[in-house]
Design a protein that fits this description.
Chain lengths: 464, 1042
């Protein structure tokens, strides 16, 4: 078997194993067959192990054969000749995607194993695993994407499954409300992404990264855009990345997303999902090089996020939010590193941070046990001390910063007041106009829905 | 003095009187807040403690109304139990007859007797719902086409026949319509339009069935319209938020709670956040300072908050004044003040309760709250409420007037929806007609008064009443089963004891005293099965040693005694002298490792430290994968390393003090000899040991250790206030071995033989390990005895693990003993395990008496077992009184907390464990932010059966009545039926059951109990609850492989 065929077979295995998992977990319930917990675990285990082994094998062959770039072409799926558009399914194994894929399989596998016991007997067991399989598939597709359309496909799968996992406990209102909030921030990011993709098509004639980045392979690519074009596309992609990675000003959703069960939190914020923005920036890093303004913006956003998150993390009183902001601090630093052009460091940083944070999140429910152990070891209450920087700030300002951090930097309020509120006002105004117009036309009340009252009948069995 | 100053003074006095009254109102309301303290020292208690003065059945309804929770399980859950025979039809009958008394046989016209009607209503589920849903059911399902499937064929045929006859005879157009028949004509003609009237003679069976049901439905609707509209019993809320929520669907509490939760958590924080809240004096001032600063959050709804706070600061308004101001601002009338304050506090009851706990039990936490914090909490809350309510009413109602008139503006809140009531009542009658065979003609002929009676009778037996009856039947089932088993078993024991001529008792091989905990029941049973010549006892697991204890590797003193006792003595664990150097070394190393770990944890959350940590973070993936995939193996690694680097260290208890008074200072630590003797004698007397001591006497405390479990301390010994009871057992053994103590004890007539040695032990109920203390002090003569005992205990704990495994769905039913032990060890160390063990789940019984009466009886880990011998007690029942004073409140507290968390897991309990988020090191929230969740979480109670605890006490009814007279606490629980009570007479083996204020002789309903050779023969292969069985070693077979 030639190296190419081996690459092809293994590459297809890497992509199809999570896709197959989606199918085997998702289709039977649609046909009315419930899978047992054991069956689901077995499928998940098999899919992760196959994917992981195949990606490690690819890495090994790449090292032996000294290849740095392995494209897997799966042909054009949609071709619209008039519009010069083709949806080209292409996956790429290179120095960026291989570590990321291995990391994804490893952490998803660990979380899958963890969940198998954590969610035992939970009514939403199957639902969790279906969302989880979509998440894994999304992660793999995003990491391996060779064209911007394929990346978008994976990006959307991750977004959708994340929002569903945030709202996993849908019998309570708060998770659903927060899930919708996460989802709407994601939509904003996705819109920016989509515009960027169209712009790239328009500018380079294709969504293929290799034609975009020119000859070299990651990280040595040379983009073929002008500096202005790069700034435009780059800023759009930066918006997309900021939404996905909860960078300032979108950070507010991150603590709210702590509604899901622990393992799902672990894979979004500790590990994978929150790094996707950084991954996107790494993927398009040749574009960043073209425009100084763009890189400067990236560094600035990264540093602002890191500073904001590290202040906010210090005042959090619950373990999950503390970890969420701690993650965000590092993601900010990673983004700044990317802006400064340290790509390998950023990659190592992502991998290390993801593993560490997953461990910490999975241990989060054991916090009291661990605190007790530590207190005993140290022989007293655990001390907290103000940081070096904190001591330099004068006291009144410190108080102000405390409230600023307690209120999470006002980011949510700012978004609500400056974006959501005007937006709503406009539509309410439109609605009022429409109503007066239709009322005038029908010569009276025109909306039947106005009459319907929310019924508050008492059903004794439901509530006393 | 001028007149004006006098007036001013009067006004002032009036104001301060009002404020004082307000303080009383708040104090009163605070009793309703959850009584659970910090989660790190979890003490089980009755969730409805505030309602204990009422009888149980009334209290659950009252409490349910106050807290908005269910008093009993949902009806369908009881019906599931009925289907699985956990409730038997005969129980329902008996309970219903008992409940109705003479009213049972009253005849209600064609409905039959009241008893008959109610039985019919209990037999099958009755669907109800909002009117919209019922309309949908009628229109879209086959409710009007097919009889309910529970309807017997005969009933169905009869109903269809009657309708058919009636229609063909009177309604088709045969006879002349008379006046009274006009209405039915109208109805039937409407129906005929839908059915094929001309072909009426050749209608098929199914068409007649549909026609019959259609007609029945129309008649039911028609009939209930004649009945007066009932006033609905929704408790009127006084909070503006509820009015707004009803009117607009917008919840102003979302805004208030967003700020309150964050601020309360920061205020209460016990040392989690690395930047603590800059506190001023108290909650109120801190909030005023923090939120009175410039450049605050740009939230629209908080506009003006800063101005208010600055005003408060400048005028130095007190919290109480601020509350009075807010109440006035909101237009709260004086008579609704109490209700308003209560409801407002209960809106965020978790935090309010925790503040109250931290304020009133300030010795239990590292950072207590000053007195008056709850009042300050309410002041801030009301202040925020003003802004939130103002915002919502402006935004959604367009109301800009004064908030004091907001409720009038919204207007009458719950207008009674009479149309919905017709729909709901009609549907009930419609279903019952099918189930009980009431035909349409009879119903049609019913006059208005008849309909009123019908509806009144049906509504008198509402869902709540039905659930109560089901619940009583459910309890009766278990009670009768238990009392039958006890009766049969005790008669056998009694006969055996009568036939024995010699009263000489053999010296047991060994004796062991365990905690009364229900989890030790199986452990003791297995010990007795493995070695029938051993003797086991049960006593409250702190073994009468109430102490503050600090272990050698522990930072703080922990109280090891029931929560109601405040210990006097302090006990330290020290490294023995010859190991002091090694111990010091070890402690230094521990401190180093601890400090490094803590620092790296904290700094991994910061800017620079996090960077370093993250770069090397990939190393973290190794322990991560290990811990998740191989939990049991991973847990052993630190142990192996520990042993490698450090020599073993021997410790001893510093148990005896040299100074007169107990205290924390050197010399004051420990007990005096008479105090020791008192504790030792007390336990030995309580368990009724009768001067027969074996050579080895094991004292076994218990506790539990698990990961992924914020509620870990709830699994520990209840008698040690949520701590581990090992040190108590160790201390007790050491005291009892002391010759000076024995001398004092023997002076009181309790002879402990010279060759009896006490050994302390600790049973971990999660991984079923047993460790022993101070074995180096064991005399050489007893080495062999101990080796034997250890072997027995090792087999027993494996068997115990095996029996526990039947309850775990993830453990196979065909495990061998070794596999079972490995499984429970894995569970204890598994980061992802949500159910390390089942704790007190399934508890239902408490046995107070000699072990003979329950020995060899399979109690399925459902029984607290307290040893007590009435023969040893004096006339004043000193022993029984003190035993019950501990056992009744503690066991009832555990049982009732399980009851409430089980009947409404989301309401009384802590809900699902999976989204729990530890906050402020004090409690758990759901997800990112929510109120604190007291109570037990769902995974803990999922196999529990909510039954009131049944006490079976070996004594006479007169004795109990005497104790109840003397002790108010016990009397309240027994009189109010918060616990069930039966006595077992040791002289005649007769059982008396306490019901409705008096004792009556219990007649067993069965004559035989199943028998098995060993417990495993009985429980093997079965996951659900098991009945009682007699374990007769004579027909023993060997279990498992080992």
């Amino acid at each position: 078997m030639s190296t190419e065929t081996m690459f092809f077979v293994l590459g297809v295995a890497v992509v199809t194993s999570p896709a197959a998992l989606v199918a085997v977990l998702g289709i039977p319930p649609l046909l009315g067959r419930r899978l047992t917990e054991q069956t689901m675990n077995r499928y998940t285990y098999a899919s992760t192990v196959i994917g992981l082994l195949a990606s490690i094998a690819i890495l090994a062959i790449m090292l032996i054969a000294d290849t740095r770039f392995v494209p897997i072409e799966l042909g054009n799926w949609v071709v619209i000749p008039q519009q010069h558009f083709h949806f080209h399914l292409k996956f790429v194994f290179d120095r960026l995607s291989v570590p990321f894929v291995i990391l994804s399989f490893l952490l998803c596998g660990v979380v899958g194993a963890f969940t198998s016991r954590y969610l035992h007997r939970e009514p939403g067991y199957g639902r969790f695993y279906v969302s989880y399989s979509f998440f894994t598939l999304g992660m793999i597709i995003t990491s391996l994407a060779g064209t911007i359309e394929v990346l978008f496909l994976g990006w959307e799968l991750v977004g959708l499954s994340s929002a569903l996992l945030v709202a996993f406990f849908h019998e309570r209102p708060t998770p659903v409300r927060n899930g919708i909030r996460v989802w709407s921030v994601y939509r904003l990011a996705d819109a920016a992404f989509l515009v960027a993709a169209v712009a790239m098509h328009h500018l380079t004639g294709a969504g293929d990264f290799s034609s975009l980045m020119g000859s070299g392979h990651w990280p040595a690519g040379q983009a073929v855009l002008t500096s202005h074009q790069a700034l435009l596309v780059g800023l759009l992609l930066l918006t997309a990345a900021a939404g996905k990675s909860a960078l300032v000003p979108f950070s507010g959703w991150l603590p709210r997303a702590m509604e899901g069960p622990t393992p799902s939190s672990a894979i979004f914020y500790g590990a994978l999902s929150v790094h996707l923005g950084a991954f996107l920036l790494l993927r398009i890093s040749p574009i960043l090089e073209l425009s100084f303004a763009l890189s400067a913006t990236v560094v600035a956003i990264g540093l602002i996020t890191a500073a904001y998150a590290s202040i906010t993390a210090r005042v959090q009183t619950d373990i999950k939010c503390a970890l969420a902001f701690a993650s965000l601090t590092q993601v900010g630093i990673i983004v700044a590193e990317i802006g400064l052009g340290f790509r390998y460091i950023a990659l190592i940083h992502i991998i290390g941070h993801a593993s560490l944070r997953t461990l910490q999140l999975l241990r989060a429910p054991t916090l009291l046990h661990d605190y007790h152990t530590l207190e005993n070891a140290i022989g007293g209450h655990l001390e907290t001390e103000t940081s070096f920087l904190g001591r330099l700030v004068p006291a009144p300002l410190r108080d102000w910063f405390y409230r600023f951090a307690l209120e999470r930097g006002y980011l949510d309020s700012l978004l609500d007041e400056c974006v959501v509120h005007p937006f709503r006002r406009i539509f309410q105004w439109c609605d009022a106009r429409e109503r007066s117009w239709t009322d005038w036309l029908s010569g009276g009340q025109s909306r039947a829905s106005d009459e319907v009252k929310s019924h508050s009948e008492i059903v004794e069995e439901l509530r006393l | 003095m001028t007149k004006s100053t006098l007036l001013r003074k009067q006004a002032k006095a009036q104001v301060s009187g009002k404020l004082e009254q307000l303080r009383v109102v708040i104090e009163h309301a605070s009793h309703l807040l959850p009584g659970q303290g910090p989660i790190t020292a979890f003490v089980h208690h009755n969730t409805l403690h505030a309602f204990e003065d009422l009888p149980f059945e009334q209290a659950v309804v009252e409490g349910g109304k106050t807290f908005g929770c269910h008093p009993y399980l949902p009806e369908n859950r009881y019906r599931e139990k009925l289907a699985r025979n956990r409730i038997r039809p005969e129980d329902i009958e008996a309970v219903l007859i008992d409940d109705l008394g003479p009213r049972a046989d009253e005849l209600l016209g064609f409905l039959g007797t009241r008893f008959h009607l109610r039985m019919g209503m209990l037999a099958h589920p009755l669907q109800t719902g909002p009117a919209a849903e019922l309309r949908w059911v009628v229109a879209e399902t086959d409710a009007l086409h097919r009889f309910r499937e529970e309807t017997p064929r005969t009933v169905r045929d009869r109903l269809v026949d009657i309708t058919r006859r009636w229609v063909m005879r009177d309604l088709r157009n045969g006879s002349q319509p008379e006046n009274c028949d006009l209405r039915i004509r109208e109805l039937v003609n409407k129906l005929f339009d839908r059915f094929d009237k001309p072909q009426v003679e050749s209608w098929e069976e199914a068409t007649w069935e549909a026609f019959c049901l259609h007609l029945l439905w129309l008649i039911c609707r028609d009939g209930v319209q004649k009945v007066a509209v009932a006033k609905q019993s929704k408790p009127p809320s006084v909070r503006h938020r509820d009015w707004l929520l009803d009117a607009t669907g917008e919840d102003s509490d979302l805004l208030t709670h967003d700020v309150m939760i964050r601020f309360c958590a920061a205020f209460l924080d016990q040392g989690f956040s690395s930047w603590p809240l800059p506190r001023c004096e108290g909650f109120f001032n801190t909030f005023v300072e923090q939120y009175g600063q410039t450049f605050g959050p740009p939230n629209r709804w908080q506009r003006g908050l800063r101005r208010q706070l600055v005003r408060i600061r400048n005028e130095s308004t007190t919290p109480l004044e601020s509350i009075a101001e807010s109440l006035e601002y909101l237009g709260v009338l004086e008579e609704e003040q109490e209700e308003f304050v209560t409801q407002t506090l209960l809106a965020l009851s978790g935090y309010a309760g925790m503040i109250w706990q931290v304020e009133s039990n300030s010795d239990r936490v590292a950072h207590p709250a000053p007195e008056g914090t709850l009042i300050e909490f309410l002041a801030i809350r009301l202040l925020l409420d003003r802004f939130a309510i103002g915002n919502v009413s402006r935004k959604s109602l367009g109301y800009t007037g004064p908030l004091s008139e907001l409720r009038e503006h919204i207007g009458k809140r719950t207008e009674i929806d009479s149309e919905a009531q017709v729909e709901q009542r009609a549907f009930l009658v419609f279903q019952l007609s099918q189930l009980l065979g009431w035909d349409s003609e009879t119903l049609y002929q019913l006059p208005a008064e008849g309909w009123s009676t019908l509806v009144r009778e049906i509504e008198a037996f509402s869902g709540l009443e039905r659930r109560r009856i089901y619940h009583l039947a459910f309890e009766r089932q278990y009670r009768n089963q238990t009392l039958d088993a006890v009766a049969i078993h005790s008669r056998r024991v009694w006969k055996d004891s009568q036939s024995k001529t010699t009263s000489e008792r053999l010296r047991p091989i060994f004796q062991i005293v365990c905690c009364i905990d229900d989890r030790e029941e199986s452990f003791r049973r297995h010990l007795e099965e493995v070695d029938p010549q051993c003797e086991t006892f049960g006593a409250a697991g702190f073994f009468a040693i109430a102490m503050y204890y600090r272990g050698v590797a522990e930072a703080h003193y922990t109280p090891l005694c029931p929560a109601i006792i405040k210990p006097k003595q302090y006990v330290d664990e020290d490294v023995v002298y010859s190991f002091e150097k090694a111990g010091e070394q070890r402690r230094r190393r521990q401190r180093l490792i601890g400090t490094v770990t803590h620092r790296s944890h904290l700094s991994s959350r910061t800017f620079a430290g996090g960077w370093l940590a993250a770069v090397f973070g990939s190393l973290a993936s190794i322990p991560l994968v290990m811990q998740i995939i191989f939990p049991r193996a991973a847990s052993r690694i630190p142990g192996i390393f520990g042993n490698l680097f450090l020599p073993p260290v021997l410790t001893k208890l510093q148990l005896e003090r040299s100074e007169a008074l107990p205290g924390q200072e050197p010399g004051h630590i420990g007990y005096s000899v008479p105090e020791m003797a008192e504790a030792v004698e007390r336990v030995l007397r309580d368990i009724g040991i009768k001067n027969i001591f074996s050579r080895l006497f094991i004292v076994c405390g218990h506790g539990s250790s698990s990961l992924n479990n914020p509620h870990e301390s709830a699994y520990n010994c209840g008698a040690c206030a949520g701590a581990r009871g090992g040190p108590n057992a160790r201390a007790f053994a050491q005291m009892a071995n002391d010759p000076r103590v024995r001398k004092l004890v023997s002076d009181h007539g309790l002879q402990i033989p010279k060759d009896t040695v006490f050994v302390g032990a600790y049973h971990n109920t999660c991984d079923d390990s047993v460790e022993y203390f101070d074995l180096e002090l064991l005399p050489t003569t007893h080495k062999e005895d101990f080796a034997k005992v250890q072997k027995v205990i090792d087999v027993s704990r494996a068997r115990n693990a095996h029996e526990r495994c039947r309850r775990f769905q993830s453990a196979a039913l065909d495990f061998s003993l070794d596999e079972a032990l490995r499984h429970v060890e894995g569970r204890a160390n598994d980061l992802s395990q949500a159910r390390p063990e089942y704790n007190h789940a399934t508890n239902a019984l408490c046995f107070v008496g000699r072990r003979e009466w329950s020995r060899n009886l399979f109690l399925d880990r459902r029984a607290f077992l307290q040893s007590y011998d009435p023969k040893q007690d004096d006339e004043n029942l000193t022993i029984l009184t003190r035993v019950l004073q501990a056992a009744v409140p503690v066991c009832a507290g555990i049982n009732l907390e399980y009851y409430f968390s089980c009947v409404d897991s989301a309401g009384w309990g802590a809900g699902n464990k999976l989204p729990h988020n530890i906050t402020s090191l004090l409690g758990v929230m759901d997800g990112a932010a929510s109120d604190l969740r007291p109570g037990l979480y769902h995974q803990m109670i999922e196999i529990h059966e909510p039954l009131r605890l049944l006490f079976v006490i070996e004594t006479t009814p007169e004795a109990i009545l005497k104790i109840m007279e003397a002790d108010e606490g016990i009397a309240k629980l027994i009189h109010g039926h918060w616990v069930q009570l039966a006595t077992l007479d040791s002289d005649s083996a007769e059982i008396h059951l306490y019901q409705n204020g008096k004792f009556s002789l219990y007649q067993p309903t069965i004559a035989e109990l199943p028998e098995c050779g060993c417990s495993a023969d009985w429980y093997r292969g079965w996951r659900n609850h098991l009945g009682f069985a007699q374990v007769s070693p004579s027909i023993s077979k060997q279990v498992g492989k080992s």
